[in-house]
């Protein structure tokens, strides 16, 4: 600036050529140039500017035109502020201003700037104030920083007041925590700390936190992360931490303002829910039954367990993609009932339905028992329906078999009742007839016992056949075998086709054959060593629609002179009456 001042054409200014300057003006100019601070001297009442190199830096694009120019012309934007000060200084007062705000235009635009200024009077030879010496230190950066800090603190205080979360301020690179109000959740940090990571963050989570910080700083974007944190009581908790960058005028990060929400209970609830879901999934995936969940809003299945494939013969993904495929699996006769179940569930009523499916994998018809129930959300609204579908085919078949068995049992009980009643009647008749023809109690006992045994044999035979009809050949062989006849010898011949008998006739016929066999054993072919017995029968049609049975009992090789006087077939005996009167 010294060279510029020396070569400047001062003749164009009220000061005149530099060679004609008064000693006072030369001395004050030398003092300004020698000052280590930005300094300007305003010469005379016209306040002509002479300044040093330090002040030139403050001039901006007002230099070099500002040299030798009246200060009012150079700084019109602040004249209204400075003119009163100049008046005070010309009156002999030294005026000092600290961090004074001035709207200055140094680069084509008027901007607020801050300065610490000292206005000192310079007296002439007559003792009056002739010039004004101004020492200037620009404090714009410091004031703006202080203002930003004050604004940040005010924002922080407002944030703390308005938030129930822990709030914090961080340095631009997060190396320093400037302040943290823990709100009882975290320990407070009232002084800047570089050890905040060790104090608050669990070692396992530090790499994740550092990575998230690096991404946010790099992109000047919001920091957001859920991580473990050491709580005010020393225990570990969980926080959802969010911080936004506060940018300066240059667009660089000045600091970060953040909030840490206590989500410990929510995280624990999430963990419990996750464990519950895992238990459910493990149960569902290993269950032999199909578990399903239906979304009421989407009107679609949102989950079907793997057992669906085994039971229904179809992949779960297919019916989850299109519910109509499920309807196609249901037996046509059962579709209406199945379709009516879901509206009932979504109205709030649990429901159980049994229906048939036609399994596409093998064409098998299976019975399904489907138990459904509504699932409500936190507000009580039915958001879903769930259910368990079981293959109950074997149970249904067992029930059908049981019903048939019960019906058969009822028939059998009725039959047994009928047979018992008839048997008692027969036994009663036998007893009365045998008493009438017995010669003694011992004779009655023997004869009655034989006939009871015959009845017992025929009841066993009927039980053996069950619902089927007994064959006449079996009745004949049964009785002859009971009397010790050698059925394999040529002396006993049994001939005839298989003729089934009505149950009502088996008992009477068996007693009749018993009487014939008794007579043969006592007096006839089965008693004689040379006796022969031929039993022959045939079925024939006696008249249209009526079948008859003819049975021939022929004994030979016996003494024809033998005449029965006491046996079952003597005239008037029970056996004879049975054969002649009871057989149809």
Automatic annotation (TrEMBL):
InterPro entries: HATPase_C_sf (IPR036890), PAC (IPR001610), PAS (IPR000014), PAS-assoc_C (IPR000700), PAS-like_dom_sf (IPR035965), PAS_4 (IPR013656), PAS_fold_3 (IPR013655), Sensor_kinase/Photoreceptor (IPR052162). Residues 276-349 form the PAS domain. Gene3D superfamilies: Histidine kinase-like ATPase, C-terminal domain (3.30.565.10), PAS domain (3.30.450.20). CDD domains: PAS (cd00130). GO terms for molecular function: ATP binding; photoreceptor activity; protein histidine kinase activity. SMART domains: HWE_HK (SM00911), PAC (SM00086), PAS (SM00091). Its EC number is 2.7.13.3. This is Blue-light-activated histidine kinase. It comes from Plantimonas leprariae. The lineage of its organism: Bacteria, Pseudomonadati, Pseudomonadota, Alphaproteobacteria, Hyphomicrobiales.
